[in-house]
Amino acid sequence: MTKEPMPIYLDHNATTPLLPEVVDAMLPYLRAHFGNPSSGHRYGGAARAGVERAREQIAVLLGCAPDEVFFTSGGTEANNLAIRGVTDAAPAERRHVVTTAIEHPATANPCRHLETQGWRVDYVGVDACCRLRLDDLGARVGGQTALVTVIHANNETGTLQPVAEVAALAHRHGAHVHTDAAQSVGKVAVNVDALGVDLLSIAGHKLNAPKGVGVLYVRRGTPIRPFTRGADHERGLRPGTENVASIVGLGVACHSVATTLASRTARLLALREQLWHLLASGVPGMKRNGHDSEQLPNTLSVRFPRARGTALLDATPEVAASTGSACHEGHVNPSSVLLAMGLEADEALETVRLSVGTTTTAEEIARAAAALVNAWRAGDARR
């Protein structure tokens, strides 16, 4: 019986395949080096050495000190630790948080939880290109603000936010700044000093490392408290025995990014633009969502005129993609991010998010574009 081929994978913003060198680095820690990093004997020492090597590799990529790198179970925990940890440590006169209307749920939902605890949370709007309105943010940040948390690159449109400007503004008022960099690390340069942030989150599975591992960068001197209680792992900030093999894999993935970023970014951009030109030439009236230049090199959010994005993908089984954030799948409501940009509901529902990655080839781009164009022309997805 002939096995049905797998679809062309254009959903790298949802998750990414592991690099071969990541798998190779992890295997010894799944077999021989199984010790607990907190143990004092040689088994523990081997595991601990792997964790600390990864911490150094990540620090090099981010431009920080190794002791500012804290391991978590992923981007969601890192965001929660940043938001809840800083607000728990904030003085009584600072009970205010500023964020945006286009955050990932891993940021938006902790902020909403703060509102139930008596905190005031302001949600800054964005323009038609999905960039936050700095004047709006400037009008909201003040002496009562404890934290400003802004996503670095929106997961649906790929638009990069002016985080450095946000940080400068917030710091003038004594507020701390966090950015969710889950989508941007591995695709563009991310340096904590260039961004000026106090806290930054990474999700391993977004940059060809395993699921279930992440990082929170915490600048030295930033007041923060743990929100889970246990032993003194990760210098008391994040208790729980470390996921050693996955941490090692994340370290290797970050080392790969640090040594290949320029060529990686150029290749992703070339593939994305190839995909855009093939689609635009085959679908009259197609529109792009997001910013023209302040944009992830791998992300293409497009609107297929007079077609539903969900129906179009259903009619194109040869392509694996999404109609927005993978974390929002399973409903037909228009994306809140696209609505915040000013799109009408019908326009938002026309959207398909296509994201390329390190394993994508030009031949796959050509086949995927042809399949999507043919499905649109056939009219099966038309409203």
How would you describe this protein?
The chain has helices spanning 20-30, 42-62, 75-89, 105-116, 134-140, 163-172, 192-195, 244-282, 309-314, 336-340, 345-349, 362-378; strands at residues 8-9, 69-72, 96-100, 120-124, 145-151, 176-180, 199-203, 214-218, 287-289, 299-303, 319-320, 351-355. It is of the alpha/beta class. It has two domains: 8-16 and 261-378, Alpha-Beta Complex (Aspartate Aminotransferase, domain 1); 21-257, 3-Layer(aba) Sandwich (Aspartate Aminotransferase, domain 2), CATH 3.40.640.10. It has a seven-stranded mixed sheet with strand order 2-8-7-6-5-3-4, sandwiched between helices. A three-stranded antiparallel sheet has the order 9-10-12. It is globular, with a radius of gyration of 21 Å. 50% of the residues are buried. The model is unreliable at 325-329 (pLDDT under 50).
